[in-house]
Amino acid sequence: MDNEVFRVEGVSKMFGAFQALNDVSLGVRHGEVLAIIGPNGAGKTTFVNIVSGVFGPSRGRVLLEGADITAFSPQRRTRLGLSRTFQITSLFGGMTVAEHMQLAVRGGDTLGHERAELLEEMGLAGSAPRPVDTLSHGDQRILEMAMAMATKPKVLLLDEPTAGMSVAETDTMIRLICDRLRGKVGVIIIEHDMSVVTQTSDRVTVLAAGAVAASGSPEAVLRDPLVKELYLGSAAGH
Ligand SMILES: Nc1ncnc2c1ncn2[C@@H]1O[C@H](COP(=O)(O)OP(=O)(O)OP(=O)(O)O)[C@@H](O)[C@H]1O
Ligand SMILES: [Mg+2]
C-alpha cells in the first residue's frame, strides 16, 4: 500500500487453546486515522498489546516502515516511532505536568521549547507546574497524549482515548485528534464511541471473534448490516 507506515501481517494469538486473534492483517498510511472497533471480547486489547509489544503474537509479524519489529520491546518500539498513549495509572500523582513531559522524552530528542509548544497546543500550558493528580480526568488523558506526541511518533496507538470523559472533554479530544494528529502521523484508535469514530477516522476495521469482519470508510462500515448485527447484542449498551 502506498505511503504505509505500519502493518500487521497474519497476526494470530492463542491463550492456551483459546484463539483470541485469527490471522489479522491491516495497514495504516502516513497521516491516516484508522479506527478499530468490535464487540466485547473481539480481541481489541489483545491487538493493542501485540502492536505495542506487551506480548508477542503466536503467529504473524508487526512491521514499522517495512521493518520487522515483532520481537522488539515496547521501549525499543517507542524509540523507533511507534508510541501508545500512556495509561493513567502510569502518571505519578505528586509530579507536575512539566515533569511528566520530561519523563516521556527521557533519552529522546524533544527540546524544552518543543515540549512547551506541545503543552500549549494541547491546552495544558497553564497546567505545567501543577501536580497531575490535580488535573481533571480529561486533562490527564490529554497529558498522556502530549507525552506520547513528545516522543515524535510515526505511528500513535490510542486505546479508548475518550473512555470516562465528559461530553466536553470528548469534544476536546476529537478536536485534538483531527487538528494535531490526522494528516500528520499514522493513528490507530480503539474506540467504543461511534460518534468519536465517525468524527475522527478515515477508515474503520471491525474485529469480531478475533478476525477482521469488515473494513472501509466509517460511513460504509457503520451502514454494513453485518456490523449492525454484530453490535446489536454486545455493544447496545455502549
Ligand atoms: N491472558 C488471557 N488469557 C486467556 N484469555 C484471554 C486473555 N486475554 C484475553 N483473553 C480472551 O481473549 C478474548 C479477547 O479479549 P480482549 O480483551 O482482547 O477483547 P476486547 O475486544 O478488548 O474486549 P473489550 O471490548 O471487552 O475490552 C476474550 O475472550 C478474552 O476472554
Ligand atoms: Mg479491551
Tell me what the structure shows.
The chain has nine helices and ten strands. With 238 residues, it is of the alpha/beta class. The radius of gyration is 18 Å and the shape is globular. The strands form two sheets. It has a six-stranded mixed β-sheet, with helices on both faces. A four-stranded antiparallel β-sheet has the order 2-1-4-5, with helices on one face. It has two domains: 1-81 and 155-238, P-loop containing nucleotide triphosphate hydrolases (Rossmann fold); 88-152, no CATH class. The structure holds adenosine-5'-triphosphate and magnesium ion. Residues 44-45 line the site of magnesium ion.
Helix content bin: 25-40%
CATH superfamily of the largest domain: P-loop containing nucleotide triphosphate hydrolases
Structural class: alpha/beta
Q: Major β-sheet, in short?
A: 6 strands, mixed
What is the highest CATH level, the class of the largest domain? Alpha Beta
* Major sheet strand order: 6-7-8-3-9-10
The CATH architecture of the largest domain is 3-Layer(aba) Sandwich
SSE series? EEEHEEHEHHHEHEHEEHH
Strand content: 25-35%
What is CATH's topology name of the largest domain?
A: Rossmann fold
List keywords for this structure.
single chain; 238 residues; alpha/beta; 6-stranded mixed beta sheet; 4-stranded antiparallel beta sheet; 10 strands; 26% strand; binds adenosine-5'-triphosphate; binds magnesium ion; ATP binding; ATP hydrolysis activity; ATP-binding cassette domain-containing protein
